[in-house]
From TrEMBL:
InterPro entries: OSBP_sf (IPR037239), Oxysterol-bd (IPR000648), Oxysterol-bd_CS (IPR018494)
GO molecular function: sterol binding
Comp. bias (Polar residues): 151-161, 177-194, 220-237, 245-259
The protein's name: Oxysterol-binding protein
Region annotation Disordered: where it falls in the sequence: 128-194, 209-278
Family: Belongs to the OSBP family.
Gene giving rise to this polypeptide: osbpl9.S
Origin organism lineage: Eukaryota, Metazoa, Chordata, Craniata, Vertebrata
Listed Low complexity bias regions: 162-176
Organism: Xenopus laevis (African clawed frog)
Membrane-crossing residue ranges in chain numbering: none
GO biological process: lipid transport
KW Phosphoprotein (keyword) present: yes
Amino acid sequence: MAVEGWGSQGGDSGFVPSVQDFDKKLAESDAYLQILIDQIKLFDEKIQSCKDDEQRKKIENLKDTTCSMVESIKHCIVLLQIAKDQTNEEKHADGFISTINPVDSIYQPSALELVVIPNMPTQASPVSESVQVCKGEPRPSSLAVGPVVSNLGSHQSPTPISTGSGQSAPSSSLTTPSHVNLSPNTVPDFSYSSSEDEFYDADEFYQSTTSPKRGMELPSSCSSESATALTRSSTGASLKRPDTTESLNSSMSNGTNEAEQFDTHDDRDDDGEGESVEEHKSVIMHLLSQVRLGMDLTKVVLPTFILERRSLLEMYADFFAHPDLFVSIGEHKDPKDRMTQVVKWYLSAFHAGRKGSVAKKPYNPILGEVFHCHWALPGLENDVNPEPISEGPVPGASKNNVTFVAEQVSHHPPISAFYAECYNKRIQFNAHIWTKSKFLGMSIGVHNIGQGCVSCLDYDEHYILTFPNGYGRSILTVPWVELGGECTINCSKTGYNATITFHTKPFYGGKKHRVTAEIYSPNDKKPYCSIEGEWNGIMYTKYANGENTVFIDTKKMPTVKKKVRKLEDQEEYESRRLWKDVTYNLKTKDIDAATEAKHHLEEKQRAEARERKEKETKWETRLFHEDGECWVYDEPLLKREPSLRY
């Protein structure tokens, strides 16, 4: 390993190594480790092609030995990382100030802090679907971890939005994850994830009689109201679309103004304080001891303190934090300008979800969970006589609003579907995302399978787009987010298309958060517009005529706060009401109570899943249906208003 030669170098030459030198060698070691992992994959090919049983057995033994070596190297890297952090703490023992600022988003490390430990020197390839190299014994249950970062991404080729009505399963198949032995007595009490196989955190590890953290009565706030969310009859009679119009109209008829009717509070905006990753280093070490490189993270227990206080469904709403850019797409007369505006909205959609300093994980949505919200367009916030819309994602909202709804439509695999529209601007958006997480040594990769479609009804244009991968870097100290991968936007009717590349930070040097984009006219091989910059900063454009200008400046673009109905007006299965007890206890830093609340909620879901299995009834989605390989909103604007058709 590269780290081994580093110590002698300082002794022979008199050179005093710095923290940066240590980080550099550690990063090299991790990169070599990834190369070794790739080489191990070749064992499988050798084993399959080998016809001699004795020779095959030798190769299998060699593979097992190499896998053990890989695990030892991985843990060595982790221990070296911990040792460095502990050394830094000793230097500041008289008044150590934590370098962790545990709020969600992007943190820019100082020179003395840990640099990113990438998973490969080039950082150019997507998360591999077949990185699993080491097999373990089956564990008692499967504990899931949702995406740790903004869950955005796909490297698959865009599939046109299906217009058929046939029912079919998603085309992508699940990779069988590795397993390891896991003793219930050694599992940390801070278990926070939803399981892809068991739906929720494994019940085997809920030890109320042996754990002091669990030996308490459930708080009154965690009573049956939150635990009965998503309750449905086995006949499916209550499985259909909720009637949200009644609660909205009742508020209006009672003289409730919009400020009272909707809550614009963002759970992330109230404070930037929280628990430090450094304070839970032993828990993280235990977490890492349970994983294998390339393992599907739906099988790993996540500590509670890294949770963001909102659901993944709510995070997807951040795509529309600039609703004015979204609705302006259809206002352009020239198809070239419309394509350029789609790219502008797309590139502006990623920075809004990351406001703090540390990447944190949202709640894994529960099957059937729904999130509704809307945005008032800038300049129309104080519309005196708003014309309410009777249907759509948020009945009762103004026709000038951008309205949004998301639903967790599947748990095997975990798929979220979401839809947005603006009635008066005659534009809609439909998307679905299936998240897959992988452990990459010192990083976590999130590969999302899915696509979105922007539909301009005035022009009968549909822009099919994909999303970048997400990476959680520096997971032992100050987790931060970066995006990576090539994405596309295509309009089949006009022929305009764009390629967007999110660049991961190079192994040595280079900048974080770089993005480049090229927009092409039909049948042209040379772009008419090139864009470069940072997706969470300033992006510049260069046109074919030589004109250069600022394309987007996210630092100067104020986001529009979404509006969500108050908790008392929400249905039991809506995200904020569903998770309200967990959110409250996380906010007050009562981790044990948050764990209790989540466990109580998920136990209810397990019971309902068992009941459906016993009665052989199938789960019915609320607001979306499967159409080919896509999940489509049941009542899109185009369907509700035939007069809007082109």
